[in-house]
Amino acid sequence: MAPLTSVRVTRCRAFEKAGVDLCGPINIRSGLRKVTPLKHYIAVFVCMVTRAVHLELVRDLSSDAFISVLFRFISRRGQCIKLYSDNGTNYIGTKKILSSWVFDLSKEGKFNDQLSELGIEWQFIPPPAPHFGGLWESAVKSAKPHLVKSSNGSLSTYEETSTLLCRIEAVLNSRPLTAISSDPSDFNVLTPGHFLIGCPLTSPPEPNQMVRVIKVCPDADGVVRVVTVRNAAGTEYVLPVRKLVRLPNQEEEDCEDAEY
Fold this sequence. Notes:
Layout: H1 6-9, E1 17-28, E2 38-47, E3 53-58, H2 63-77, E4 82-85, H3 89-107, H4 113-116, E5 121-124, H5 134-151, H6 158-172, H7 192-196, E6 212-218, E7 224-230, E8 236-240, H8 250-259
Parallel strand pairs: 1-4, 4-5
Antiparallel strand pairs: 1-2, 2-3, 6-7, 7-8
Helix pairs in contact: 2-3, 5-6
């Protein structure tokens, strides 16, 4: 793996430098009977440093629609200094419109401090190199399974889909970024939500399933097929090992680094 670029490792505020991609289309129920579902798209913003994710529903692929999405994103996440994307025509059109606004305002002498915040340094990846946008492509890949499993093939209204995207966003921003601690009683882990609000963003009704194995039950042949686990609330469960996912911890990473 090649070294990360400077934008990925330079400390800055969350979403100050972000990548964006559009995925879809998804069908939205209009609310009327016998009316053809409306096609919408999802704008996926991802912070280049913290890997936090922001999801917005887009009505179409026009530049005007994306400008509205961009302003909603900036209003909720703060001014974006650098924005990275592929060479989609809607992105290029949005850049031209914003550039024309800045030029007209400066020409008329109305370029005050508030309007100067519209300036965004927009960088496009090379057209034949989609792997340059692996960060936001990975975010799209992570969001799609949640959307498919939650919708279960049924059509939702605009409000229901917007709510679903916010919940998916909370789940993605509660995913671990680093290896967990080797202490069985320590369930804390660094997530993108810590850079946004200081803690994971998972909604309160969501069950906390990041558990630790506290006891193994080997069979007569010495093979462990059943274990006892405990979650963050202190509740213990007996589970088969095939239901477990082994996560790396800091001690293992330190040993791997020492070997190299």
